[in-house]
């Protein structure tokens, strides 16, 4: 379905971004990976996922907190594959503390990586999308873009912000072939969440399995983690012709979290 298209997925060396990159590659999209840590393993996984569909894979190590890096990544993506047709703004970090204890540099980092990076990548991707009259911007927000939780001030502020950015981007392009939508996952068992499971296990003296149950039980009625594969399929849907008129939604996949 996406053969000949190029998808840039930020923060795709791990977790949800990697799941979305694999799902888009399976549909034939060429993929530009981004993120820190081991690159060879995720690159091999995305290549394997896209093998039958002939997808190619490139990588740029932009630090999404740095505007100059983002500009360089956008130029690199265009030089590799012509242009970015699908932009998935996914890179994100978490920090947990009460507002009065929240380290200022952590606030700045969360806002830069989880929110401002999506603005910069979107503003740089939009001209080519509009010229082609086709584009998809998918912002990975969170259920925390819809509701709050204590001790997550920067994260909740950034995620509510990215839901707002999604609506404005969708509206400004509503008469074009460029759509913008947000995905709002509940708990997904990635390294970002495993750290919170570890903290619960340490705090309450629990096993890993019991700490997972405690975490889910506090928020997620289904008592199940959403998976990167499920989120990847939602991203594929947003890229499909059936989603041509889906514009500015914040679509939760959260096991009923926000329904409460
Ligand atoms: P993860 O830690 O598994 O992956 C994060 C990715 O972002 C990694 O590839 C990492 O290298 C990259 N990254 C971090 N800082 C970066 C930076 N400065 N520049 C470039 N890349 C950077 O986390 P995840 O759980 O897969 O999270 C992905 C997105 O999904 C985040 O925006 C997160 O807020 C969101 N999300 C996660 C959950 C969850 O339960 N895991 C729920 C809702 C939303």
Can you walk me through this structure?
This is 3-hydroxybutyrate dehydrogenase. Its EC number is 1.1.1.30. Strand 5, helix 5 (153-172) and strand 6 form a beta-alpha-beta unit. This protein folds into two domains: 6-186 and 227-253, Rossmann fold (3-Layer(aba) Sandwich); 188-225, no CATH class. It has 260 residues and is an alpha/beta fold. It has eight helices and seven strands, in the order βαβαβαβαβαβαααβ. The mean pLDDT is 98. The chain binds nicotinamide-adenine-dinucleotide (NAD). Nicotinamide-adenine-dinucleotide (NAD) binds at residues 11-17, 34-37, 63-65, 90-93, 113-114, 140, 142, 185, 187-188, 190-193.
Anisotropy-based shape: globular
CATH class of the largest domain: Alpha Beta
Order of helical and strand elements: EHEHEHEHEHEHHHE
Q: Fill in the CATH topology of the largest domain.
A: Rossmann fold
Q: Provide the domain count.
A: 2
Percent of residues in beta strands = 5-15%
Bound molecules: nicotinamide-adenine-dinucleotide
Assign the CATH superfamily of the largest domain.
NAD(P)-binding Rossmann-like Domain
Helical amount among residues, as a percent range?
40-55%
Radius of gyration: 18 Å
Query: What's the arrangement of strands in the largest beta sheet?
Result: 3-2-1-4-5-6-7
- The assigned structural class equals alpha/beta
Q: Distance N terminus to C terminus? A: 36 Å
Low-confidence stretches: none
Number of helices, counting only DSSP H or I runs of 4 residues or more: 8
Average per-residue pLDDT, rounded, comes to 98
Shape-level CATH architecture of the largest domain: 3-Layer(aba) Sandwich
- The overall strand count is 7
Sheet with the most strands? 7 strands, parallel
Pfam families: adh_short
InterPro entries: 3-OHbutyrate_DH, KR_dom, NAD(P)-bd_dom_sf, Sc_DH/Rdtase_CS, SDR, SDR_fam
Domain Ketoreductase: 5-177
GO molecular function, one term: 3-hydroxybutyrate dehydrogenase activity
